[in-house]
Give the backbone structure.
Amino acid sequence: MTSNIGLRTLLVLAALGLLGGCATPTPYDYTAFERSNPASILVLPPVNRSPDIKASYSVLSQVTYPLAEAGYYVLPVAVVDETFKQNGLMNADEMHMAPPAKLREIFGADAALYIEITRYGSSYKVLTSEVAVEAHGKLIDLRSGQLLWEGRALASSAENQNQSSGGLVGMLITAAVNQIVNTLSDRGHEIAGITSRRLLSAGIPNGILSGPRSPHYQSRLAGR
Amino acid sequence: MSLTFRAGAATIALALLSALAGCVSQPKPLYHWTGYEEQVYEHFKNEKGPHEQIAALEASLQQARARDEIPAPGFHAHLGMLYAEVGKADQVRQQFETEKTLFPESAAYMDFLMRNFER
């Protein structure tokens, strides 16, 4: 009898374990983020790992919208870039090496966002020409140096591209024409804007939390 | 009879549509965005001169005032930097001060910029 109960418990536990396995990825641990509670964010010029030299400034010029609309004060990105250069830090890699305490002293921001661009621009892939931008971001508390949040996002022109009929030659021509259109019209910049919003908006799974200037901020505080 | 029915159906359809539109529509942004990110990108691309960028941002400011919207965080500071490029010292200070008033979070950095600009 006792062993029967034991078996039942085991089965229930096993079932629970299975359910746990089915559940979607573990929710992000926001403990450090909530404790830090930053109000202002310094976005450093992104480090670019793609072959397109435009990538860093293209992404940097589009990070303010999602972060500010999420409720944070975002320091003026181009002015910040200028300040770094006047202090002898000429490229993003060097800027990312600057000590958090020094950044805090000059810019007075609560947190800094370090972005790395892993993909930017068009690639000709025989049958499709795709423009994709992928970036990774890390939010660091400038008072403690602690990691508050990190995330990754990708956007691609291929997301809505239906394979048009017209045979192999037709597809090859379409791909070649797309490649030209994608290059000429700064498609990369448009896609980078989508990547940036996917990476840095609040109210999305595992995204950043709403900041003090957001209308959702009070409910976030109340809900924890 | 059929006319009133049709009118009724049309009203319901319209109500449903507006309800749907209500679900889909985005909340109003917190700030006035026209021009800011575009001009930041222009500044980085360095294809147009500062005068053209200043003109675009000043036009956007007029629009923000007319709509009673707050310019995006960084807007006034960026404009101040452009005024520094064309040597309009009084405008530089005014823009940095406005940024500070609208966003007290920027105070430390704006003070840093003004100290450096005066040197």
